[in-house]
Amino acid sequence: MCHVQKMNPSNSQTAIPAAAAPKAQRNKNLGIEKKIQDKLLLTANQDNFLTVDVSEVNLLSLYIKMASYPPLEERELKNTICLFDVDETLTKARRHATPEMMDLLSRLRQKCAIGTVGGSDLVKQQEQLGGPDVNVTSLFDFCFAENGLTAFRLGEPLLATSFIQWIGEEQYKELVRFILHYVADLDIPIKRGTFVEFRNGMINVSPIGRNASIEERNAFEKHDLEHGIRPLFIEKLKERFPHLGLTYSIGGQISFDIFPTGWDKTFCLSHLEAEAKKAGGLEYTTIHFFGDKTFKGGNDYEIFSDKRTIGHTVADPADTIVQVKKLFNL
């Protein structure tokens, strides 16, 4: 916390400047500058000083920087895009991105297009990368949630695809019944809640349950590495449902995704290919992908190894920062 002297309303006030690149586009709907001014000017204490949460104000300032960017066609590397996995690449699992990461992304966005590609839904990307009044889709040029089955370009939604329409209700119910019976009989140290999470383009299965705390997630991840809980679960599903044409992909600490074969993270590349065919669209001839689960069976493997991308394996968000800084001289 820090103290900032309160301004007299009769005096001229200097607004906090928003970092902006030449010919920058401004997202006028964010209202971030006003939020910062409210923090600084309206929360006075009895000593005629303001009590300000410095980390929050700094993060809000970074949101301003990220929302200030040149048009895609005017960036230095206009035919390059960097796509990032979320958990353990941009953020620690289910945590918010650090100010250092947000600052790096804001500087990278001045040079080339940037995008997220995660297996989770957009709500989780918002929780980990956005803010209370800041939509995550305004901070990245492309947001691909659920492997791109839910997609946004410059804040505008692209065509979505539905898992339930693809598989059909009867086969879906049969699949879920098997999963829940298997979880019920599974002997693991603890179980919590939300074992199956239905998403637009897939389902997410968690043997421990997605309601587990951070500490419980860490403990399960260690237990899973020792006993192969998720890989064995997946093998049983493959044996039971070979006819459904499904892919099973381990991601994060506690779960795995189930989706139609071909609907892995490479699905998001179809949106980039469509971008090139639009009037005035850009062709991304260089596509960098950064992810941590790039091993075979991990949910980053397919896009990491795809011939259309340049794959980068990262150990954690700190490693992402190191690699991006080195690659782009930031």
Automatic annotation (TrEMBL):
Note one Pfam family from the annotation: PMM
This chain's source organism reads: Bombardia bombarda
Q: Describe its function.
A: Involved in the synthesis of the GDP-mannose and dolichol-phosphate-mannose required for a number of critical mannosyl transfer reactions.
Alphabetical list of PANTHER family matching this protein:
PHOSPHOMANNOMUTASE
Q: Which cofactor does it need?
A: Mg(2+)
Sorted alphabetically, the keyword list is: Cytoplasm, Isomerase, Magnesium, Metal-binding
| Binding positions for Mg(2+) per the UniProt entry | D85, D87, D292, F304, D306, T309
Taxonomic classification, please?
Eukaryota, Fungi, Dikarya, Ascomycota, Pezizomycotina
- Select a single GO molecular function from the record's annotations and give it: metal ion binding
State its Enzyme Commission number(s): 5.4.2.8
Query: In Gene Ontology terms, what is a biological process of this protein?
Result: mannose metabolic process
Its main subcellular localisation, reduced to a broad class, is cytoplasm
- Please list the reactions this protein catalyses: alpha-D-mannose 1-phosphate = D-mannose 6-phosphate
Query: What subcellular compartments does it reside in?
Result: Cytoplasm
Q: Which family does it belong to?
A: Belongs to the eukaryotic PMM family.
- Cited InterPro entries: HAD-like_sf (IPR036412), HAD-SF_hydro_IIB (IPR006379), HAD_sf (IPR023214), PMM (IPR005002), PMM_cap (IPR043169)
Annotated region described as Disordered, given as residue ranges: 1-23
What's the protein called, per UniProt? Phosphomannomutase
